[in-house]
Design a protein that fits this description.
single chain, 371 residues, alpha/beta, Aspartate Aminotransferase, domain 2, Aspartate Aminotransferase, domain 1, seven-stranded mixed sheet, three-stranded antiparallel sheet, globular
């Protein structure tokens, strides 16, 4: 998943470096406004990672020790870790065998009096069933914090992920847009945005940038506990350049993914992630399950052919040694079945026809060998 960086973004970063304002500044505010407009929400706040975004979002909703938060296990560990950082307990929810997203039936069964929030993860760029999820949230008076690390630009019934609850985005190097490391929180509540902005900057009411225009810029008034979770000004400059080409990049991802799907139809043991009607998949990753064949052999043979395949995720979070030690052995049969059979194929916006054909040829050869 090669990052798409051009001279334009490089020059924008260089301009900020030459100007000399490195920490949170003017470019952050510009990036936040553009990002909020793109997602279709009132506010956005830039931070240093999606993990920080999740952590701060949970804190703004009052999540604390003794509370429970529903999370999928079929995700990156950061989703559950953020809950622990608040002193709360992540409750692992099983996955759907076709979409690989959170199983809404299992989620409903795991809501208790201690459940305060739910974090859906839009796996690989495919939205969760936001209609059923919203019903669960409303019925049980829960907070919804979307983990949108993998689904920038994805849509459920025409509405972008990250606009249903509080949205938490990642700008890691493999994501739809990148700032190297970085993240964003989206919300329609000014109170939430202001609180996150304050907590990301040590709990001080005004950022260094905002104070620079004050009569006494050295006055630093802390009114709450905070962290140093800020995104730099030059990262934001890079993010602005990246965001300007997001639509083209996602269109390219979808076009390439459709070609891969069409090619894979000839192999009955390679099953792509299902995309329901009215869902727009933004294809952060192209994932498939290998059924009835040895996944390890399939991966190794493609690697030997020079194809950069990967696995997302095995083990799932509930089977990580840390979480087994913490909570004991939890059984999520569908999640465990998916994790044993999942693979990720290469996909990035600039993938050429020649690269696709090379991958297709390698898959054909490996399939013939395995048959």
């Amino acid at each position: 998943m090669k990052p798409n960086i051009t001279e334009k973004e490089i020059n924008e970063v260089v301009e900020v470096l030459k100007a000399g304002w490195f920490t949170y500044g003017e470019k952050n505010e510009e990036f936040e406004k553009l990002f909020a407009d793109y997602i279709g929400v009132k506010r956005a706040v830039s931070v240093n990672s999606c993990t920080s975004a999740l952590h701060l979002s949970l804190l703004t909703k009052g999540i604390k020790a003794g509370d429970e938060v529903l999370v999928p296990s079929f995700t990156f560990v950061a989703t559950a870790n953020a809950v622990l950082h608040c002193g709360a307990k992540p409750i692992f929810v099983d996955a759907d065998l076709e979409t690989f997203n959170m199983d809404m039936d299992d989620a409903g069964k795991k809501i208790t009096k201690r459940t305060k929030a739910i974090i859906p993860v839009h796996y690989a760029g495919l939205p969760c069933d936001m209609e059923r999820l919203s019903e669960l949230v409303e019925k049980n008076n829960l907070h919804m914090i979307e983990d949108v690390a993998q689904s920038l630009g994805a849509e459920f019934n025409g509405k972008k992920t990250g606009s249903f609850g509080i949205g938490c985005f990642s700008f890691f190097s493999t994501k739809h847009i990148t700032t190297g490391e970085g993240g964003m929180v989206t919300t329609n509540e000014d109170k939430i945005a202001d609180q996150i902005l304050k907590m990301a900057g040590h709990g001080i009411d005004k950022s260094t940038w905002a104070r620079s225009y004050a009569k006494y810029p050295w006055e630093r008034i802390q009114t709450s506990i905070g962290y140093n979770f800020r995104m730099t000004n030059f990262q934001a400059a890079m993010g602005i350049g990246q965001l300007k080409k997001i639509n083209e990049n996602i269109e390219n991802r979808i076009r390439i993914a459709n070609k891969i799907t069409k090619f894979l139809k000839q192999f009955d043991f390679i099953v792509p992630q299902a995309v329901p009607n009215d869902y727009k998949h933004s294809y952060h990753m192209y994932t498939v399950r290998i059924l009835g064949k040895d996944r390890k052999t399939f991966l190794e043979k493609l690697q030997e052919a020079g194809i950069g395949v990967s696995v997302h995720y095995n083990p799932p979070v509930h089977l990580q040694p840390f979480y087994i030690n913490l909570f004991g052995r939890i059984y999520l049969p569908k999640t465990e079945e998916i994790s044993k059979t999942i693979i990720t194929l290469p996909l990035y916006p600039e993938m050429t026809k020649e690269e696709l054909e090379e991958m297709f040829g390698a898959i054909e050869r490996v399939c013939k060998e395995m048959n």
